[in-house]
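Supplementary Methods S3. Input chains for the assembly prediction are listed below.
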Amino acid sequence: MKNDKAIEIFKDFLKRGKYRITPERFEVLEAALQHEGHFGADDLYVKMKNTKSVISRATVYNTLELLAQCELISKRNFGDNMTRFESNFKRQTHDHLICVDCGRIIEFTDPRIKKIPQEICDNFDFEFHSYSFNIFGRCKNKKDCLNKK
Amino acid sequence: MKNDKAIEIFKDFLKRGKYRITPERFEVLEAALQHEGHFGADDLYVKMKNTKSVISRATVYNTLELLAQCELISKRNFGDNMTRFESNFKRQTHDHLICVDCGRIIEFTDPRIKKIPQEICDNFDFEFHSYSFNIFGRCKNKKDCLNKK
DNA sequence: ATTGCTGCAAAACGTTTGCACCTAT
DNA sequence: ATAGGTGCAAACGTTTTGCAGCAAT
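Predicted structure tokens for the full assembly:
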């Protein structure tokens, strides 16, 4: 199965941090990896509940935090006061273009962006951790517009 | 007084949008411009209340939204589920470097970043609105570290 | 056996809304 | 006169917490 590698990475991370290996944590990992695109913690909780899981909200929130720490998933923030996650597993790093009308999220990569964060950190005597580059606009082609808002 | 220009800009914006000119709105503008650095909407509300204002929470939130619309202030999001604002008035655009340990926010500018957002929007047939570029790291020099977290 | 993790519910937090009154137009 | 804005409080949605029981070490 293709998630075996992720399971192994998570297990190692838990061991290294002296966190316990529990079935619930792997249940959340499984659900997070199988989720398409970006999702909120509560979305995932509800989705898991709908598939007869007995997991608790707290465990989902806690585990997503751990998964973000070991970089199997990324935490995102698109300015709507809701933390979103997305799987990093077997995906290249990318940035986001968000339509302020309909909320549609487009992923893009630009080679010019890559080296900037590390350089800025060096300039200010910071140890680089992560960065987020979000561009907000309006999609002109309204055929694609989801108009969720 | 140096905020006269901002008051004028806001007044024009309100007229253009057929919003009413009310003393409360200018009270919020005044407070926002005089606030140093980044602030949350509720911080500003509390600060205004502490200086004997009778303004309501709803008015502060609504007015900050209007001030962001006319670009006298900027809305920021540093990943902690709290919208922050900062005055744009007489300031050059900049990006942010945030310490994940202590929450300290450093502003920087990098000329390479400027043109990217518009280009990306063109590529995807979007009308450019705004962008945010946040870098997260840990400050190595712990003398400066605020250790708020 | 001992912590740490879990589920549950309730609290906390920032933000938004509903409503009656008020005020700028 | 009348839309629209205001203050207040209560509701909202997301996230965090407290606690008793459970399970991984």
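Chain A touches chain B through 38 residues (CB under 8 Å). Residues 7 and 26 of chain A are 7 Å apart (CA to CA).
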